[in-house]
C-alpha cells in the first residue's frame, strides 16, 4: 500500500514517533458502528468493510494489521524510519493462552504508562497483597542493556536479573514467591514483562502493555497476556490484570507533570529507578518527544 502524506492540521509529530505501529483495540469489538478514537492527536475511524477492517484518518486509508488479538496501524509518511511491530515469539507457542484485557483510558502521557510498568518499587505500596507487601520493599540491583533488533530502526531497552517478592504474582499462584522478572521496552509506547510462571519453572509468562497515545497527556492502554495457565477462566484473568492496572491509573493520573520529563535534573532517581533512567535516556537519544517534557 502506498503511503500518502497527512492532510489534516494536527500538531506535527516527529517522524520516529509518527512511524511507530500503534494498537487501536480488539478487532472483535468492531460491530456495526465504527470505532472513533484519537491517535497522536489525529481523528481515527475503524470500520468493517466486509471481512476487512478499514482504518481512516480523514480521507486517508491507513495500514491495518491484526496481531496479538489487536488491531494496529501507523501514521507513517514517505521518508519516515522503517518501523516494525514488536515481535513476541511466545505468541505463537501452541500451549499459551492469548488474553486481551481490553482498553483502559488514562489521563497521562503514554510514556508515563510505560515508565510505571517498569517500576518495581511501587509494588508494595500500590499493589499491596498482590505484587508486593511490606516489609519486602527492597529492589535488588538489576542489569540494563540495549539490544539491536533485525529490521528495526531503534534498539530495545532490556532490564534483566530483576527479582522481587510477590504475595500473588499471578492468578494461578497459590502463595508468595520470589519472582524473576525481565523487562523489555520494544518501542517507545510498547513494553513487555517476562516473569516466573507458577508451576513451570523453566518457562515464563509474558505480559505486554501496548499504548495508544491519543494526545500528549492522554492515552489508552491495551494490556495483552501470553500465559501458561490452563486452569483459570478468561474472565478471572482479565479481572486480575485490570485490577492491577486500575490501581496504577490512580497514581498515573496524579503524577505531575503529566508529561514525562527527559531531563535528568528534573526528578532525582534512586538505584531502583535504573530502568526509568535508561528509558528516558533512550527516548531522548532517539528523538522521541511526543508525551515528553524537555
TrEMBL record:
Highest classification ranks of the organism: Bacteria, Pseudomonadati, Pseudomonadota, Alphaproteobacteria, Acetobacterales
Protein name in UniProt: Aromatic ring-hydroxylating dioxygenase subunit alpha
SUPFAM superfamilies hit by this protein: Bet v1-like (SSF55961)
Domain of life: Bacteria
Domain Vanillate O-demethylase oxygenase-like C-terminal catalytic: 112-285
Keywords recorded for this protein, A-Z: Dioxygenase, Oxidoreductase
Molecular function GO labels: dioxygenase activity
One of the Pfam families matching this protein, by short name: VanA_C
PANTHER family from the UniProt entry: 3-KETOSTEROID-9-ALPHA-MONOOXYGENASE, OXYGENASE COMPONENT, IRON-SULFUR DOMAIN CONTAINING PROTEIN
Gene source species: Endobacter medicaginis
